[in-house]
């Protein structure tokens, strides 16, 4: 997820260069298709799936397509994210910033993970990479919404490992 730029784009290109088949997920379809074409030009295989992880219907439709079009999925990289830099005192009337950040950084990643887990269990394997931040280990001013959402994702990740790492 978040494959249209930054870490997501770099990860997709690096994995494609190593021969992996890549499913690109992000909101910006034009950027996804640009990256898909770049991977194809490099001799790789890629498919674009425009999706808004903030929208449950969009996410569910995307998962339905992924599962129907790819009988084997090895890795999910939950990379999509939103970061809001604002002091808490300036956020008192902006609780929606916290809700939006949690929706994408935690709920979107958790929902996508839970939607793909049955396929991983059916296959007998699968890897989930949740992109987080070092800020979850220390106090970082002005990023309270972002850090809280990533801490939730980290806690979810630890539970996944404890329950399913076998």
Brief digest:
The protein is an alpha/beta fold and 166 residues long.
List the helices and strands and how they pair.
Blueprint: H1 6-17, E1 21-26, H2 29-41, E2 45-50, H3 56-69, E3 75-78, H4 95-123, E4 127-130, H5 144-164
Parallel strand pairs: 1-2, 3-4
Helix pairs in contact: 3-4, 4-5
Task: Characterise the protein shown here.
The chain has 166 residues and is an alpha/beta fold. Helices cover 54% and strands 12% of the residues. The chain is built from 5 helices and 4 strands, in the order H-E-H-E-H-E-H-E-H. The strands form 2 sheets. The protein has a two-stranded parallel sheet. It has a two-stranded parallel ribbon with strand order 3-4. The two termini are 25 Å apart.
What is Rg? Answer: 16 Å
The helix content is 40-55%
Instruction: Give the overall shape.
Output: globular
Count of helix runs: 5
Query: Strand content of the residues, in percent?
Result: 5-15%
Mean pLDDT: 96
Order of helices and strands: HEHEHEHEH
The first-to-last residue Cα distance is: 25 Å
Question: Could you tell me the number of beta strands?
Answer: 4
| Main β sheet profile | 2 strands, parallel
- Overall SS class: alpha/beta
- Give the strand order of the largest sheet, numbering strands 1, 2, ... along the chain: 1-2
Low-confidence stretches: none
């Amino acid at each position: 997820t978040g494959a249209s730029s930054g870490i997501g784009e770099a990860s997709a290109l690096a994995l494609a260069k190593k021969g992996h088949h890549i499913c690109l997920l992000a909101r910006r379809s034009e950027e996804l298709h640009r990256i898909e074409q770049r991977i194809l030009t490099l001799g790789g295989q890629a498919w674009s799936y425009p999706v808004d992880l903030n929208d449950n219907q969009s996410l569910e439709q995307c998962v339905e397509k992924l599962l129907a079009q790819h009988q084997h999925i090895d890795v999910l990289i939950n990379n999509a994210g939103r970061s809001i830099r604002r002091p808490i005192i300036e956020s008192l009337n902006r609780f929606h910033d916290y809700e939006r950040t949690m929706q994408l950084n935690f709920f979107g990643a958790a929902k996508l993970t839970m939607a793909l887990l049955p396929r991983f269990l059916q296959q007998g394997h699968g890897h989930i990479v949740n992109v987080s931040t070092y800020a979850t280990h220390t106090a970082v001013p002005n990023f309270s919404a972002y850090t809280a959402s990533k801490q939730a994702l980290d806690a979810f990740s630890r539970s996944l490992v404890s329950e399913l790492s076998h």
